[in-house]
Amino acid sequence: MPPATHPLLILHAIGKTFASGVTALDRVNLTVNEGDFMSLLGPSGCGKSTALRIIAGLSQPTSGVVDWRGAPLKQNDIGFVFQEPTLLPWASVYDNVWLPLRLRGVSRAEAAPQIADVLERVHLTGFEKAVPRELSGGMKMRVSIARGLVTRPRILLMDEPFAALDEITRFKLNNDLLDLWAERGFTVIFVTHSVFESVFLSNRVTVMAARPGRVFDEVAVDAPYPRNKSFRTSPEYAALCRKTSDVLVGAINATAQDLEAETYGDH
């Protein structure tokens, strides 16, 4: 699915300083286009998750503006998938996926077609009555993705959702996520520590540096979709991973230089 070129979201000079005095983000400028699959890549402490929470409205910036372009987003327009599946342990797969609709006043019966559709899309048909303890890690994350998509959001925010999974499961979920993105046409902002994952999934990789968290550079991933196993083993993929890795090293070095300056500045 080729991304559109008109902006869905613009972050203007976003800053975030916590009550402790730690500055998590400083003057972050970022444009997300309708239909983008954008990854936020960077070292720990660079504010990737903080930026995602601000976009979701779960945290307020200390400074700057979050500008949703066009029609204002409705409550259903944002889906969020956290690093941990965060499922209700006593509830069935069906009821976990129903939760965001239930909170909006949609009855269990009314929600049935949407739930059935999204469970089919994440390959969980037949597991509706299972509870989380009966599921593998990959299946729990599929439930979490289904819950994020059941409201048919315009934008899906994903905070390192596959970090704790084994490589084979991670590859499968990467493939399934791209299929869903192509089919439904939503926008994705995906936080990851993995160069390889960011290049495989994204049309844009935004690399962040830390101390304070800021946008360091962006890598355009011009490889066509759909992407599959042959792309993972292609020279083009290897070259894009090297390029992205070099940018990430630059961001880490910038972080180290800032830390050194801060340390020596105290003496």
Element layout with pairings:
Blueprint lengths: L6 E11 L5 E11 L3 E5 L6 H9 L6 E6 L9 E4 L11 H10 L5 H14 L15 H13 L5 E5 L7 H18 L2 E6 L2 H7 L2 E6 L4 E7 L8 H4 L2 H31 L2
Parallel strand pairs: 3-7, 3-8, 5-6, 6-7
Antiparallel strand pairs: 1-2, 1-4, 8-9
Q: Would you mind describing this structure in some detail?
A:
This protein is an alpha/beta fold and about 270 residues long. The protein has 2 domains: about 5-75 and about 155-265, 3-Layer(aba) Sandwich (Rossmann fold), CATH 3.40.50.300; about 85-155. The chain contains 8 helices and 9 strands. The strands form 2 sheets. The protein has a 6-stranded mixed sheet with strand order 5-6-7-3-8-9, with helices on both faces. A 3-stranded antiparallel sheet has the order 2-1-4, covered by helices on one side. Helix 2 (about 95-100) packs across helix 3 and helix 6 packs across helix 8 (about 235-265). The chain is globular and about 55 Å long.
Radius of gyration equals 19 Å
Task: Name the quaternary structure.
Answer: single chain
Largest sheet strand order: 5-6-7-3-8-9
Fourth-level CATH superfamily of the largest domain: P-loop containing nucleotide triphosphate hydrolases
Low-pLDDT windows of residues? none
Q: What is the percentage of strand-forming residues?
A: 15-25%
Key traits:
8 helices; 3-stranded antiparallel sheet; Rossmann fold; 267 residues; alpha/beta; 23% strand; single chain; globular
